[in-house]
Amino acid sequence: MLEEFHQTAVRIADALKARGQKIAVADGATGGLIAASLLTVPGALQFYVGGGVVYSLRARDVLFDLPRDAYAGMRSATTDYALLQARAIRDRFGAEWGIAESGSAGGSTHPLGVASGISVCAVVGPGVEQVRVTETASDDRIANMVTFTRAALDHLAAVLRGPD
Known about the structure:
Elements: H1 2-19, E1 23-27, H2 33-38, E2 48-53, H3 57-64, H4 79-93, E3 97-104, E4 118-125, E5 128-135, H5 141-161
Parallel strand pairs: 1-2, 1-3
Antiparallel strand pairs: 3-4, 4-5
């Protein structure tokens, strides 16, 4: 699976290195696959500073260090929620870029009621905040994780490439 994502990760790494910029990652329903994909690129320390898998409220609180009221009125797997997390991971790790994915891979009931097969990915950077929603209408956990990761990496590569 990581082989499939490697070429996109190389394009992302090349774009970040060319700018002299770094990224931090908050994986959600992707379970660490966004970060793992980026780390397939040799010399990843040149563009990747860290991140984490945000899979519980406790992990969210520790990783982002935001007050609980920062999430007031927000639901998981929404544009506002993903943007807040992308900004927080970027700022917490002192990177120029942040990417955050929030969703429900399926196979079990999401604790916050998010339907299976929904992923929201936010990318924030210098003067840029863009979100991509991916819906599979599937409860296949592994297939969704792969689809969400592919969508997130493609989204990040497109944002770094800029408008066509």
